[in-house]
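Please, structure for the following, as tokens.
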Amino acid sequence: MPTIADIYLTDKTQLMITLKAVRSIGALVSGALLMFSATFAQANRVTSDPAYPSFKQDMVANHGFNSAALDELFEQVDYKTNILEIMSRPGESKPWYAYRDMIINQNRINLGRRFASDYADTLRRAEQTYGVPGDVILGILGVETVYGTNKGSFLAIEALTTLAFGFERRSEFFTNELKELLILSREMNINPLRIKSSYAGAIGYPQFMPSSYRKWAVDFDGSGEISLNNSPVDAIGSIANYLKQHGWQPGVPVGYPATYRGSNPDSVITEDLTQLRPAQFFSLSGLTANVPLNPDTLVAGVMLEDNSGPAYWLTTYNYHVITTYNRSRKYASAVWRLGQLVSQ
């Protein structure tokens, strides 16, 4: 059934959306999930949600969108209750050893090596341009989308609308990302009902949220447009640019495996990964790198639960930079390790 026919700008400020037909709204939202607000659980459609008018007013008053066009667009948007269920059990909630084994397997490593071979020149160019090594880029692409084989099957607008109006704990964040998605679709002249994403609204090979897409994505293949869904080359360059802009230090390792010999492990775990200390500080507390390390090297202490007990690392600022992509230390460690294995 047809949906949006075309998107265009009028009066240089307003986005006008012309519809050929409005597809039917899906089944009514049934049952209240733990994370639902009562109003969200009872809503039949987005435009009748109490949170919608203020969102629409912001888009009209501050971003030049047309009120009626927004109504027509959101009449076509369905809430996806299964997204809230997924948000209640993220993969990062698993212990490190289970998360690692879920992410790092021979199939993913093989796919990564094939991808690395296909895009070897691009990976080298990204490192020359941005200072970010290929193994880190490969680690992120592998963890995020298994090298583009799993970029997400949700409509980004439905995922973000569901989370903006239904996931109270992070409603402000997802409301902003919904706003960014609409602006992005206008800037790129893309129908917002055609943009696919993860359940959290992340887009393309690198799984950029719309705000990151607008800020950090680059046209690395020189095509004249940025396509994180269709261009692995753009994805490689965009990841490298993102990490550089967040403080990546060229030539510095992500970290070093370490061994702890002491009785108070909490004393060597760094809460704030940006607050680095000399390696000698950790050595005096019982945490030492498994390789020779200059005692003045600035590092943080990280511990994750392995099968046989705690596993320790001394990490550099670049480990923190990876956590700006995803705040989980398990995520950063999986990116680091997968990239190493793919690049061997």
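Strands lie at 4-10, 14-19, 154-155, 196-197, 255-260, 277-278, 287-289, 298-306, 309-315. The first strand starts at residue 4 and ends at 10.
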